[in-house]
Amino acid sequence: MAKHALLSASSSHRWLECPPSAKLCASHPDRASPYAQQGTDAHELAAYKVQKALGMKARDPTEDLEYFDQEMADCTDAYCAFVMEQLAEARKHCADPIVLVEQRLDFSRWVPEGFGTGDACIVADDVLHVIDLKYGVGIMVDATQNPQTMCYALGLLEAFDGIYDVSTVRMTIFQPRRENISTFEMSKADLLGWAENVLAPTAKLAFNGEGEFKAGDHCQFCTAKATCRKRTEYNLEMARYDFEVPSELTDDEIAVILPRIDELIAWGGDVKEYALQQAVSGTHYPGFKVVEGRSVTRYTNEEAVAAAVRAAGEDPYERKLLGLTAMKALLGKKRFDDILGGLTFKPPGKPTLVPESDKRPAMNTAKNDFMEEKDHE
Q1: Which of 94, 175, 219, 234 is 20 to 30 A from 139 in CA distance terms?
Q2: Domains defined along the chain, listed by start
Q3: What is the pTM of this model?
């Protein structure tokens, strides 16, 4: 089994905000999800494609992948093309850049036992580039001041700074299923300053199980999030608002609640799920019991059902137009655009309230429409 670092780069966003969570998480088992395996499969396929494009000897893992589909094929093609484009760019100002694929990176100079794996790293004179593939679709990941890629960049500097004359560090998050390519640059001096003044002292606290617990959006992937007392205190502060009469809240009060509401809902769901697992294992919570939820009747054998219905003189199947993804797979992207380009449209999405930091443009609201009408009077 692969060794996992206590202070991994992938969890650095959490332990930098909440240092003692590192050791607390280590004492809680981390249940693997199908999404994690899907991401592993995508990374394995992506690495193979980049290695093949570089002329390196590599084995095609496709037949062994559990979650391989056309979307994964397309996304890893796009990732490989992006890496090769960045290599071509590096060659414009460096005669001999190198590309490292799935490279183990050691940043233990600043983080005790700190190491991680860089998906694709391009080392050249002037610029060092870390490219991190994110196959997940649930959360948009931003490269700006991203501690995971910054840790990877530090590991890369440790290995190559004396060989190449690096002055700038570039870090990219490539998240194809969200159509998100986010790039952030900083000087080598600023990165090293962050490592010495922020990363190293906080990592020392985390490694020793010291520092202050702190709740926030970094709790999402914490294995102790359901039972963490600090997170409970953080969310129970909301109880001072009278949710039974929401219409009586002022706009200012709602503005205070909004940044916390998603975390409050997530916290409640996490506690409920944890309690269910404990109750199934035998824990009794006064006033609650475990029952069977609603279930849906299913066929025991679809082929036998179809045969029985046909024998009764009826057609057991329905015809349905292929969805967009399946249709693109059937026709290929170019033929799809040529044949169906004029027969598709993208309707406006459902209005969603998000923080102002969200990169999507603001919709025209009723107030904006009113202001525009007043401007034209």
Answers
A1: 234
A2: 12-207 (3.90.320), 225-280 (no CATH)
A3: 0.70
